């Protein structure tokens, strides 16, 4: 109440000066608070993105594990195929060395 009474006693020049100072203080505070608010918002977004990235990374690790298991299985099958080819080759060689009619 007292502030309003004092403002009423001020002239138009003083009121303009107070208005300009108030706008400048608001601008300075805004310039200080805005980057802080943006940094806080980015931090909140990064938390949500980090959770999404963790899920995606876990999926990539699972796929990598499945790929490694597939490669191990492929190597095992290649070994079995090589073994079977060698056995068949020996069998053919043995049959070709037999005397005809025996």
List the helices and strands and how they pair.
Blueprint: H1 2-9, H2 12-97
Tell me, briefly, the overall form.
rod-shaped
- Approximately how much beta-strand content do the residues carry? under 5%
Radius of gyration: 42 Å
**Overall pLDDT:** 83
Spans where pLDDT lies below 50 across 5 or more residues: none
The tally of beta strands, per DSSP, is: 0
What is the number of helical segments per DSSP (H or I, 4+ residues)? 2
Question: Kindly, what is the distance between the CA atoms of the first and last residues, rounded to a whole number of angstroms?
Answer: 128 Å
Please write the string of helix (H) and strand (E) elements.
Answer: HH
Helical content, roughly? over 70%
The largest sheet, given as strand count, sense and whether it forms a barrel, is: none
- Structural class, by secondary structure, is mainly alpha
Give an overview of the whole structure.
With 102 residues, this protein is mainly α. It is built from 2 helices and no strands. The longest helix has 86 residues, at 12-97. The protein is rod-shaped, with a radius of gyration of 42 Å.
């Amino acid at each position: 109440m007292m502030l309003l009474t004092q403002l009423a006693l001020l002239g138009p020049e003083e009121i303009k000066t107070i208005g300009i100072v108030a706008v400048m203080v608001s601008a300075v505070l805004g310039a200080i608070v805005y980057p802080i608010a943006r940094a806080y918002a980015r931090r909140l977004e990064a938390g949500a993105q980090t959770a999404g990235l963790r899920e995606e990374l876990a999926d990539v690790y699972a796929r990598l594990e499945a790929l490694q298991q597939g490669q191990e299985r492929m190597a095992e099958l290649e070994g079995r195929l090589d073994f079977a080819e060698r056995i068949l080759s020996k069998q053919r060689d043995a049959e070709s060395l037999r005397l005809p009619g025996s």
